[in-house]
TrEMBL record:
GO terms for cellular component: plasma membrane. This is Ammonium transporter AmtB-like domain-containing protein. It comes from Albula glossodonta. Keywords: Ammonia transport, Cell membrane, Glycoprotein, Membrane, Transmembrane, Transmembrane helix, Transport. It is a multi-pass membrane protein.
Length: 475
């Protein structure tokens, strides 16, 4: 343990200082203010309420709460790894957002040799950060902070390239990120944990347990995520009725999955009692299952149905699929991200395809060609001119049929999952390198390896912690 402390004393600061130096050079060279933040483009006659800050900041603030508080608390459910779950989430999130601003800025906001920085960039970077934190759940407690930072360093550009290519060339509907965020993050994390497989943890670990206080803190994280999830799902929707539907559908889906979670938790329990792990995770399933169709006219009943389906699939996944994957396929999914993000993401994708196939002008009116812009007539089509008389700002589309678009949605799902699996496995192989200070099996799920812990660590009194601090002080 002392050798591990010495290696981190050099390697973690070296990695962070080198990264910050690189980021500083890149920010200095390529990042400048966007139009709404540039003083040269503003004056006393400028309407401040027309600034994009007032449109984007509420969503940015809500997603920020989800990233730093929601995920942080949720990942602190292990009795002896609460510091690691919350603090490494904090570290990884801050690093990933800094890095994502640069990487996504290059692909999405690159203009005249500069990245024009605004709140919209920060919001996009937070979504990329959410991808990393979901993947983090699969390797929780089994990795060093340096390994997590390396995962973020590699995953962000892989995700950014995939997102850019899918949105630019496949042009899909995925406002809530079920395909590009949840499915990608899930299968990237599963690929990484497959590469990081530990035979010594096949039958579990003595400290792979929750505690009374840690479970309460984790449920607090669930509540933060639950409350702010409508902002996450609606931030990228078209302003107006599309965004309004996204908020409504997300709330209904979350409510339905919550009731489903409580019902199934007691029904499937041997003693007919609630299980805290179910409340911490399954209650959120509805937010994912409505994601791909959240801005569409799926009806409140449809959102409710998706919430029930998501909660059921997530619950059964935790009870039966996670142990099966661990023992048969070497996938040690610590937080069960395949259940909350993978299974539900697949349901969401199928629901989105159904909603696309059933969309018509009778239901949507002329706004059909705004919600589904790729179905708008192409440039030069007489029908485009007719529609632009009703919707002046309507942009030319691709003239796709509903069936054609459904196939593109399937293709996007395949691309996202395929790239994620390959990228996750390769990233996991890099993370296995010895100089990244991976913890030994016996020190997994243990804060003492990385932190100065208090005397009441884990609620077990002084035990080893006071001795460890005395030893570390001599190093």
């Amino acid at each position: 343990m002392k050798a591990q402390a010495r290696s981190l004393r050099v390697r973690l600061p070296a990695f962070l200082f080198a990264s910050e130096a690189l980021f500083l050079v890149l920010y200095f060279s390529f990042v400048t203010y966007g139009d709404d933040a540039d003083a040269k483009l503003q004056n006393n006659r400028t309407d401040p309420m027309g600034n994009s800050l007032y449109r984007d900041y509420p969503f940015f603030a809500d997603v920020q709460v989800m990233i730093f508080i929601g995920f942080g608390c949720l990942l602190s459910f292990l009795r002896f790894y609460g510091f690691g779950g919350m603090v490494f989430n904090f570290l990884t999130a801050a690093f990933a957002i800094q890095w994502a601003i640069l990487v996504q800025g290059y692909f999405q906001f690159y203009l005249d040799g500069k990245i024009r920085l605004g709140v919209a960039n920060l919001l996009n970077a937070e979504f990329a950060c959410a991808v990393v934190l979901i993947s983090f759940g699969a390797v929780l407690g089994k990795t060093s902070p340096i390994q997590l930072l390396v995962m973020a360093l590699l995953e962000v550009p892989i995700f950014a390239i995939t997102e850019w290519a899918v949105l630019k060339y496949l042009q899909i509907n995925d406002v809530g990120g079920s395909i590009l965020i949840h499915l990608f993050a899930c299968y990237f994390g599963l690929g990484a944990t497959f590469a990081l497989y530990r035979p010594g943890l096949r039958e579990g670990h003595a400290k792979e347990i929750a505690g009374y206080r840690s479970d309460i803190l984790s449920v607090l994280g669930t509540l933060f995520l639950w409350v702010f999830w409508p902002s996450f799902n609606s931030a990228m929707a078209l302003k107006g009725d599309d965004q309004h539907r996204a908020v409504l559908h997300t709330f209904i889906g979350l409510s339905a999955s919550t009731l489903t979670a409580f019902a199934l938790s007691t029904m499937l329990s041997e003693r007919g009692r609630l299980t805290m792990a179910d409340i911490q995770n399954v209650t959120l399933a509805g937010g994912v299952t409505v994601g791909a169709s959240v801005d569409m006219m799926i009806s409140p009943a449809g959102a409710f149905t998706l919430g029930v389906m998501g909660g059921t699939a997530c619950m059964l996944g935790y009870k039966y699929l996670t142990p099966f994957l661990s023992h048969r396929f070497r996938i040690q999914d610590q937080c069960g991200i395949h259940n909350l993000h993978g299974l539900t993401g697949l349901i969401a994708t199928m629901a989105g395809i159904w909603a696309i196939l059933s969309a018509d002008e009778e239901t949507y009116g002329p706004s059909l060609y705004q919600t589904f812009n790729y179905r708008a007539p192409p440039e030069g089509d007489p029908k485009l001119l007719e529609l632009q008389q009703v919707i002046p700002d309507l942009q030319p589309g691709l003239g796709r049929s509903a069936r054609e678009q459904a196939l593109w949605q399937v293709a996007a799902m395949g691309v996202s999952v395929g790239v994620a699996v390959v990228g996750g496995v390769l990233t996991g192989l890099v993370m296995k390198l010895p100089f990244l200070a991976p913890p030994p099996d016996e020190c997994c799920y243990d804060d003492e390896l990385f932190f100065d812990v208090p005397s009441d660590y884990g609620g077990i009194g002084g035990s080893r912690s006071s001795v460890s601090r005395q030893e570390d002080s001599k190093v």
